[in-house]
Amino acid sequence: MVAVLDALRVGSCVRVGHSVAGMVAALASIQAPSLFRKLVMLGASACYRNVGDYRGGFDPADIDRLIDSATHDYMQWTASFGQTVVSRPAQDPTVCEFVATLRAMRPDMALSLLLTILHSDVRSRLADVKVPAVILQTRQDAAVTCKAAEFLRDHLTGSALEILDASGHLPHMSAPETAIAALDRFL
Hints:
With about 190 residues, the chain is α/β, with parallel strands linked by helices. The protein has 9 helices and 4 strands. It has a single domain (about 1-185), classed as Rossmann fold, CATH 3.40.50. It has helices spanning about 1-5, 20-30, 60-70, 75-85, 95-105, 105-120, 145-155, 170-175, 175-185; strands spanning about 15-20, 35-40, 135-140, 160-165.
């Protein structure tokens, strides 16, 4: 991310990152804080696993089931996972669009990405983030708990948390008016 911003000659920006991209932005801001005026994290989590007292969202058994399902029948997994993370019925246009993006990926690449995300843990790096952050979280998200969003708020100096009146992990797709209104408030 830093290399891309440098190549584009971006002197300073507000970086909006959804899910794991929010953590990528946080790590980039540690490396080059002057490139970022503010971070906006939409449905982000420093760790997607439940570890000790930390509630990231997925127990080890949940992760095993996700991986087994994705490995066994990728097409069926995309349909099920799409409904779960969007938090809408299978026929909903947002679910269909998300499932189509998953199916456009090579299954081995999607599985590699899923494993990387589910096993990432950047909690120990949050204290190094000096750029102000806004955390936007839906009230009900199968991928990221409100506790994970509160953890970010509590461990990112000068951060703010807003719980959006929406559900699912993709509010920018399923409730764009709500997501845009929140972005307007913080930008």
